[in-house]
Specification:
Elements lengths: L5 E6 L5 E7 L2 E12 L2 E8 L14 E8 L2 E5 L3 H9 L8 E4 L5 E4 L2 H9 L12 E4 L6
Antiparallel strand pairs: 1-2, 2-3, 3-4, 4-5, 5-6, 6-9, 7-8
Length: 142
C-alpha cells in the first residue's frame, strides 16, 4: 500500500500463475512458476510470451524469494546493487556468468543445476536479496 502497488495472482496454464501488477510507473503481466530449494520458496517470474516486457526490458527469468504467512506475502527480489558491486569488484560468483548490458542492466547466466545450487546455498538473510515488499491479501467486501 505504501508504494501504491497492486498484484493479482491467478492460476494459469501448465501449473503456472498469471501475475498482473499495477505500479505507479508501470503495469504488466508475468508468468510465474513456484519452486522450493533448501527450505525456501521461490517464484520464477518471466514476461508473458508474445507481449512487450515493459520494465522487464530483457525477456529473462527473475527468481524471487517468497514468504507466505496467512494473508501476507513477502517478496524479496535479487539485489541489483549486490550484483553490481560484485561485478565491479570482479568478485561475482564463479558459477554465475554476470554481465552488464549497454542499458546498465545486469544479466546472470547459469545452467539450471548451477543456479539451483547457488540459490539453495543462500541463507535466509542474505544480502543477495534486495529489500522485501509485503503484500496483504484483500478480502472481498461482504
Amino acid at each position: 500500500a505504501d508504494d501504491g502497488v497492486t498484484v493479482t495472482v491467478e492460476k494459469s496454464d501448465w501449473q503456472s500463475y498469471r501475475v498482473s501488477y499495477v505500479h505507479p510507473i508501470a503495469t504488466g503481466q508475468l508468468t510465474g512458476y513456484l519452486f522450493t530449494l533448501g527450505g525456501s520458496t521461490f517464484v520464477d517470474l518471466m514476461p508473458v510470451r508474445g507481449q512487450d516486457p515493459g520494465v522487464f526490458k530483457i525477456a529473462a527469468h527473475e527468481p524471487i524469494r517468497l514468504k507466505i504467512d496467512d494473508d501476507t506475502l513477502t517478496v524479496a527480489p535479487l539485489s541489483y546493487d549486490w550484483f553490481a558491486r560484485m561485478l565491479d569488484a570482479h568478485t561475482a560468483p564463479a558459477d554465475l556468468s554476470l554481465v552488464r548490458t549497454e542499458r546498465d542492466q545486469l544479466v546472470a547466466t547459469a545452467g539450471s543445476e548451477q543456479l539451483r545450487a547457488w540459490l539453495r546455498a543462500r541463507p535466509a538473510l542474505d544480502q543477495v536479496f534486495g529489500p522485501a515488499a509485503t503484500f496483504t491479501k484483500e478480502r472481498p467486501l461482504s
